[in-house]
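Thread: sanity check for a docking pose with S-adenosylmethionine

Original post by kr_44:
Hi all, I'm comparing my docking run against an independent structure prediction. Below are the sequence and the ligand SMILES. Could someone generate the full complex and paste the structure tokens? I mainly care about where the ligand ends up relative to the chain.
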Amino acid sequence: MDNQNDSLWEWSVFWHSNQLHSCMPVNEESDSLAPTWRKFFSNLPAGANILDLGTGNGSLAVQAVAVSHKKHPPFSIHGVDLADIAPAKYVANAEKHLSDVIFHPRTAMEKLPFEANTFDAIGSQFAIEYSTINKSLREACRVLKPGGRLRFLLHANDGILKERCRQQYEQAQTILASELFPITTKLLIALNEAEILNTPQAVKTAESLILSVKQVFDELEQLFSKAEERSLIDNLFTAVRNLLGLRKSYEIQVLTKMNEDIKLLLLAQSKRLQSMQKAALDDTKVTEMAEQLRQLKINNVSLELATTNIGNRSMGYWLSGEKPQTVAEER
Ligand SMILES: C[S@@+](CC[C@H](N)C(=O)[O-])C[C@H]1O[C@@H](n2cnc3c(N)ncnc32)[C@H](O)[C@@H]1O
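Reply from moderator J.T.:
Ran it for you. Here is the predicted complex with S-adenosylmethionine included:
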């Protein structure tokens, strides 16, 4: 497991798995974004240099790759992220969808390792708002070529994604504060002893712990009985239950370590969900970002609401603009 003291540990843990998206487990939502991004990339000239800020496992970069295949020469696509990303290692079929992307792990968007005027387009999907925004905007404008375009999708404070994060965060906190992990470890050890020693006392202890674990599960199920968002709970409960079924295949030390790892993953998940809620912006904040872009001499700055396919609910904001071709074009 990654080092918890690393900056953005929670994101490194998340991206060290086969996940392309961080914010869109529901297909309909990602489908509603893809056409907008593809249109943005389609309007770029063949051979354009593209930068994805806070790329994660390349959810946005993959859209640039899809358009790049129709361009001759193709785009040159870069993705930076402060977390320890390695999509080629973790994402299924990365060689098909992401092999054309140059990923820059452990790279802060506030201090980009690129020359001024390098990119024809810079995109960011739910990422720039996690950084020190004024520094990142300044950096983006520095590395953007004259005539280059910016497009950022930002979390909204009153959006559907923040609400989902809030629910999942509270569920994670409830489970972490419960007896689930300590009592599962006790049960694993007791079952192991009962099998080895086979004494009435060891069997009795194991049986009593089976009932206690069942009770913890029942209490948690009761607490979450009305939860609309169940993916975190269901995945976690399945993982812990599977662990008990793996007893015949692994040594007790391995099993208790697996239980600790599941807890650590939940802790990372909870930290990530908290940072997603903090990153969400309200109207005042996004208006300030638009104003900062204007001050950085970006033209045609526009701010629009991004909505989902589901009931037109808010998903965030689109913020975009263009760097003037010449000094004369600057307003
Ligand atoms: C919500 S995720 C979005 C990832 C990806 N764009 C997507 O749509 O799936 C936010 C990402 O921003 C990254 N991030 C946060 N602060 C950053 C910074 N200062 N510089 C670079 N990346 C950062 C995180 O590591 C994380 O991968």
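The two ends are 50 Å apart (CA to CA). Hope that helps with the comparison, let us know if your pose agrees.
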